[in-house]
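Researcher: Quick one. two chains, 463 residues in total.
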Amino acid sequence: MTDKAKIEAVGKPEPSSARLITTLGIAGLMAGILLAGVNLYTRPMIKENRAMALQNAIFKVLPGCVEYVPLVMQQGELVEWISEGIDEEISPTIFAGYDSTNVLLGIAVVGEEPGFQDIISGIFGYNPTEKLIVGFEVLESKETPGLGDKIIKDPAFRENFTALAVEPRITTVKEGQKNNPHEVEMITGATISSRTVVKLINKALGTTKEAMEEFAISKQESDGGE
Amino acid sequence: MAVNSDLSKNKLIEEFLKGLWTENPVFVMVLGMCPVLAVSNTAINSLAMGLATMFVLVFSSFLVSIFRKLIPAPVRITTFIIIIATFVTVVDMLLAAHLPVIHKELGAFISLIVVNCVILGRQEAFASKNPPINALSDALGVSVGFVFALFCLGSVREILGNGSFFGIPLFGSNFEPWIVMILPPGGFFALGFILLFFNQIRERKKGAREKNGSGASWKQSRYTTEYITENEHGISD
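Model:
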């Protein structure tokens, strides 16, 4: 650096606070406009992709399911969802899954719970007749790559949810210490994420379990009546 | 006039090649290691991550260079981050809309492009001190270098760890995949060997140049000049 340049650098006045605030304000405004535009363009597609992912997840957590009907909780009872007159922004979170002979296989429930990084959203399949969890899939998670995100793919962890008893209550145990059908073996290095999955299921069951069992009984009765 | 245009054309090519090879962000500068090691377990993931980074780097560098004289020095880093974060969010939304499977595979790493030091580094060291065309050429060179490095790593890891390339099986059923290669330690192994390979090539070239005489000293003086020019700008900004 030449002496002249050094003198110029030192002699340069500090920009005013107003100029700094204006610069950041304009940058933020431009960023906001661009993001709003891209959001308008991508939102319908993202919504459609999510619906497709949810549909695939329902078929996975309820093995043998070929058709499903969204349900809604009304005065403590589960009734079939009628979309007319209901705000489109509210999405159903409970689905009754049926096999090819229209027999109720189980109910898929979407739940959310704060994980290690962000909210974990998942769906589980519940068989109200046998009182068993028959499947679990993560819908959205931003857990630590390589650690917490094992809840999505780890085959041993997923195995926990193929025939998991829900009574007296689902609990977590360390890897290799499972002795009871209501216990879930946590993943080493992903303890918080594993616990979150169990919390998510317990929380969702807490509000829907009885209603799901009543729904299954009423379905069986109506099928028998036919 | 023609000489000037040839010179500037040469300069642009030089800027491009610099990022691609002599100053490759991964193989030479060893920057942005977090995504390099984490998402390079398959060729397709590496390519998607590389292209997402390229999109962010090219657009950010171009914008930073256009507005370089309007951004006051005390808030320049904050402004660069706003610009980078905006493009990262754009690429995140576009991937979620058009390539949901890849978006799910890359997960949190797309958002983490914001803190990739390769991107902020190019804004601070180059784009904020050079005209848009040069900044674009530099950004393209660095990003193609980054994509190339990620792709090399992803290909090696997928071929050895999965026995496939872009999901297409390469070997018969007798091949036993080296599972470790698609796990985190495999990233370190593969990167270590690739760095060894490229350093070997560089050393050989250096040896050949020294044998031939003045080539090396010319390159040395070019980089020294460039460094001084950048430093001067850094302080006067």
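The longest helix of chain A spans residues 17-61.
Researcher: Thanks, that's what I needed.
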